[in-house]
Amino acid sequence: MEEHTASRKRARASDLQDATQPDAGPQPRGGDSAAVRDRDYWFEDGNIVLIARGVSFRVYKGLLAEHSSVFRSMFLVAQASPQPAEQSIDGCPVVYLDDAPEDLRQLFKFIFPLGTSIRLNQGPTINIDMLAALIRLDHKYELPSLHEQAISFLSKYYTTDFDAWVDGTNATHWRPQPIHAIVAIGIARLTNTLSILPAAFYQLATLPLEELLAGYAAPAGESGSMPTMTWRRLPQAELLLCLELRDALIALNIETAFSLFKAPTSPPSCTTRGHCAMYFRQLLEYASQGELPHTLASSRALDSWLPNLEQEHAPLVFKHRSACRNCRSEFASREREMRRETWRKLPGLLGLIIGGWDEGAADA
Q1: pTM of the entire structure?
Q2: How far is CA 81 from the centre of its chain?
């Protein structure tokens, strides 16, 4: 079992890179002719040149140093050791980095705003690969402000709160695609932010198997004028854990369905003299045949069962096309609480203990 802590334990940034990016080759060394100037982050009045994997950036060392104590120390060393002319570019000192150029571009969007650049609090333009790049670079260059903002975005969406998850209030500012949880899991492991894991694993476990195995293509930079892509996939150990969760969710979904549709017949307030009980049993039968929105053999165990009660989904053979108002109200209350119970089990299904998991429900 792992226990959630709030510490910023410094795991290896390569852990996230290994899970989401191809291995980097050796860093080429050389002068201006050996590196391609970045088309966005080459400022003619810049005073430091950074060369990363054959791409050169001419930027402002003062702004970089303001955000990163590691860059600040690096520049002090470079300043104290004058470089030969062949190792400077237009009089600017050169610093070689082994980071992916695309990661540096994501960082520079915030430190050196361009006309089309963004701020981290402008949700529609945020994406998971941008957040991952900031986290990777934080672990190397110590960028606490951007780190905190990036983790805040992830923690809000991959919430610990059941009500926020099912009501969608976790996604008011940012909604990544379900497959992007692959990267969220890598970030959670890297930063020891384990509270992200249950919701992220849940999203992946509900995807079609072929989509889960394929992963997704993410930008890796440019080759000439053409963008290059890399595939993000779950490491094998995380994939096996996700498949185990998928099986457990299907079992919980079936258990919930039988408890909801078959267990108590009708409440005393039923206005149809028990006909609602027959209606619910018929719904269970059709859900088992995959003919309703929420089916039995589904891993989406947190989805609502209420759409199954809509009249347009009731087969014509049903004698009663809907339940009475009192039975529907009783059903809605019970099914939400049963889904909450499934939510509360998520950390345990992953072998985790998450402090404060669904704490808001206990206070309600």
Answers
A1: 0.75
A2: 43
